[in-house]
Amino acid sequence: MPEYQTLLVSQEDEGVLLIKLHRPQRKNALSATLVRELQDVFLEFDANDEHRVAVLTSSGDDMFSAGADVSEWPDELWRCMPNLGFKTDKPIVTAVSGWCIGGALTICMLSDVLVASESAKFLYPEGKLGFTGGMVASLAARIPHHAAMDMILLGRPLEAKRAYELGFVNEVTPVGGQVECALGMARNLARMSPMVLKTIKRFVNDHVLAKGPSEQMVQTMRALKHVAESDDFKEGMAAFKEKRPAVYKWKS
């Protein structure tokens, strides 16, 4: 397992990969480095057949994440977002305790199963800050419209009990119990048919859940970037300059 500056990563039993945000000095804020490392670890998770389910949480119970780090601003925050910065059909279970703010809220929104401790509070304050990436618009496809707009427009925090009542959170635990609960769910998922889970998740994400404009834009940009950075593109440009037929190998 590679070493990470901002994450604690461990292989648990039954094919469960445990990933913890670990920037306690910055309240686990989403820096450019953390965003890149989170994308990298999830790409590794998807490619490794030994990894069946991922559990994403944070070190410490008082703060899941303070959102985007203004001191190391992540220009490409989308990179750490499930189904945007990385694509995996394997289940992702997220465990939250304490504050979960801004971009961290959208990570939770895009995960498959969400566990929260009784202290969890979800907050989207961008209307007060004068900035938004727009991805939070998809929240209205996951909880009732007016409840989503209360968070997005009014910027009022959503506490764990209310999040559970709205169906945003799957289970609420005492503080400190959220990770073990998530690991228990992950182990149960790891015992099930990977093919069935992948198929159902793909159906839900690709054909059932509505995608906001920012999600669609990021998916388009990611696909075009993949082409622009491919060996085929390099070969095409070289062949044009050298005035010869291109020899494509279908490699990225």
CATH fold field value of the largest domain: 2-enoyl-CoA Hydratase, Chain A, domain 1
The biggest beta sheet, please?
6 strands, mixed
Shape estimate = globular
What class would the helix/strand composition place it in?
alpha/beta
Q: Give the overall average pLDDT.
A: 95
**For the CA atoms, what is the radius of gyration?**
19 Å
What attributes characterize this protein structure?
6-stranded mixed beta sheet; catalytic activity; Enoyl-CoA_hyd/isom_CS; 252 residues; 9 helices; 4-stranded mixed beta sheet; single chain; Enoyl-CoA_hydra/iso; Enoyl-CoA hydratase; ClpP/crotonase-like_dom_sf; alpha/beta; 2-enoyl-CoA Hydratase, Chain A, domain 1; 10 strands; globular
Task: Describe the 3D structure.
- The structure is a single chain.
- This protein has 9 helices and 10 strands.
- It has 2 domains: 202 residues, 2-enoyl-CoA Hydratase, Chain A, domain 1 (Alpha-Beta Complex), CATH 3.90.226.10; 41 residues.
- The strands form 2 sheets. It has a 6-stranded mixed β-sheet with strand order 1-2-3-5-7-10, with helices on both faces.
- The radius of gyration is 19 Å and the shape is globular.
- The chain is α/β, with parallel strands linked by helices.
- β1 and β2 form a beta hairpin.
- Pfam families: ECH_1.
- InterPro entries: ClpP/crotonase-like_dom_sf (IPR029045), Enoyl-CoA_hyd/isom_CS (IPR018376), Enoyl-CoA_hydra/iso (IPR001753).
- GO terms for molecular function: catalytic activity.
- Belongs to the enoyl-CoA hydratase/isomerase family.
- This is Enoyl-CoA hydratase.
